[in-house]
């Protein structure tokens, strides 16, 4: 996503850091324990620590199983997709009811040449008519050649002064309209806290969540979601993401055969 607004997300998200790992220490009281008792205690502690560590690891995808991707916009107009290790890329197409990203067409073509999973996103403004914004997005995306597996995304991270209920209703209207028009269930992008506040009832839409204070792939889903599809874990030196899905599984969330 564009750097100015990602800086704001990062500022908010970095206030929610992981709890520090507890240090190891033992309080000694009374007489020194017998050597055998001490050895049993240490062994038991080591085993418990190992069990806890394995349990935590099992709850998160291993790094090698995650699919790497990036997202860019007009702030990276010359991004080199040919040299990129990304297996998927999502690019800005539109914002509001009139803005078109000038780099959209180039990125769209370059990702097609690389044959990676590609997606287009719309930056939403809940102060506008959601249907007008959805139609604007579709007009720009549909002006480019489409392929099976192309992802469609709503980027929702501002309220425009609207209430929680109004933002939530706006998102539902935008998402359902795009789904009805394309047959694709759009993805929702948002910061973790924003999604947790405004995303109630949106769990049918795959979640692309930004959270910079968590290691890549290691976070729980917000709001009503049971899982997330993509984790944006940093914006340095470019917005970087991982997915728990394979490239083919990501394509399964996109356009049907065209």
Q: Top keywords for this entry?
A:
7 helices, single chain, 34% helix, 258 residues, disordered N terminus, alpha/beta, 18% strand
Summarize the structure.
By secondary structure, this protein is of the alpha/beta class.
Set out the fold topology:
Blueprint: H1 3-13, H2 35-58, E1 67-72, E2 88-95, E3 99-100, H3 104-114, E4 117-123, H4 130-141, E5 151-155, H5 164-182, E6 187-191, H6 192-198, E7 207-210, E8 230-234, E9 239-243, H7 247-251
Parallel strand pairs: 1-2, 2-4, 4-5, 5-6, 6-7, 7-8
Antiparallel strand pairs: 1-9, 2-3, 8-9
Account of the protein in words:
This protein is of the alpha/beta class and 258 residues long. Helices cover 34% and strands 18% of the residues. It has an eight-stranded mixed beta barrel with strand order 1-2-4-5-6-7-8-9, surrounded by four helices. Helix 4 packs parallel to helix 5 (164-182). The longest helix has 24 residues, at 35-58.
